[in-house]
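ARCHIVE CARD
CATEGORY: sequence design from structure
SOURCE FIELD: tokenized fold
FIELD CONTENT:
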């Protein structure tokens, strides 16, 4: 007989989550340190963003457009993708959490690189999922290392493309090979938070793959570029 609980207890998995550890904002003896780990813009933000934000203050008594129609059409045009294929979130983090919530049942797993972004694993653990880490020898993720971790309970594979802070990426060919080797019911999520910064001609943001596949999600964010 299990002991009666004396207080509410989170479901399994929650207490095993290691809290996200942000970089240092203060350094003793340095009056205005510049924190690089969050990639915030130290030059301030654009005058256009300031004006849009100020204009929005006058409409704060109303719910915003939950479908984000104006943004949806602008982003759809920019990426040449059907508007209905887009999902908007409160940062990439929310979209990553939604992916885990939608696809993971307790005991399922996600596969990510050992230097991948912490939010993938936090969201998976909150869904009682297992987190399987693919080795990144020389700080590089490869299809072979990812596929070693994939089994019949794998529902999601998260790739950071390019990696943060490794700066490495998989080539388009590697992405296509990985996708071809994954079972069709596994979601391949290609996190492009830093895609706009990758100027190597071999870089591939995965959007072409996503355009022609039902199991590829590409994320982008306004918070870096
Ligand atoms: C690889 C990666 N993906 C996603 C994010 C989160 O971005 P957002 O600000 O859109 O939640 C970060 C933030 O540092 C990141 O490094």
């Amino acid at each position: 007989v299990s002991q009666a609980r004396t207080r509410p207890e989170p479901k399994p998995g929650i207490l095993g989550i290691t809290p996200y550890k942000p970089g240092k904002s203060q350094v003793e003896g340095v009056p205005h340190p510049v924190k690089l780990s969050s990639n915030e813009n130290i030059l301030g933000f654009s005058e256009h963003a300031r004006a849009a934000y100020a204009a929005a203050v006058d409409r704060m008594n109303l719910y915003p457009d939950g479908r984000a129609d104006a943004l949806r059409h602008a982003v759809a045009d920019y990426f040449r993708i059907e508007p209905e294929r887009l999902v908007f979130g409160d940062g990439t983090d929310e979209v990553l959490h939604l992916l885990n919530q939608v696809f993971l049942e307790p005991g399922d797993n996600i596969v990510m690189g050992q230097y991948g972004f912490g939010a993938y694993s936090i969201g998976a653990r909150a869904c009682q999922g297992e987190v399987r880490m693919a080795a990144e020898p020389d700080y590089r993720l490869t299809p072979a290392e990812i596929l070693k971790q994939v089994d019949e309970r794998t529902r999601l594979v998260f790739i950071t493309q390019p990696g943060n802070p490794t700066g490495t990426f998989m080539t388009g060919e590697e992405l296509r090979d990985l996708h071809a080797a994954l079972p069709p019911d596994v979601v391949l999520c290609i996190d492009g938070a830093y895609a706009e910064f990758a100027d190597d001609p071999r870089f591939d943001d995965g959007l072409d793959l996503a355009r022609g596949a039902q199991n590829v999600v590409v994320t982008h964010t306004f918070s870096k570029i």
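CARD ANNOTATION: The chain is about 30% helix and 10% strand. The pocket of pyridoxal-5'-phosphate is lined by residues 91-93, 117, 160, 164, 191, 193, 221, 223 (CB under 6 Å).
SHELF: design records, drawer C
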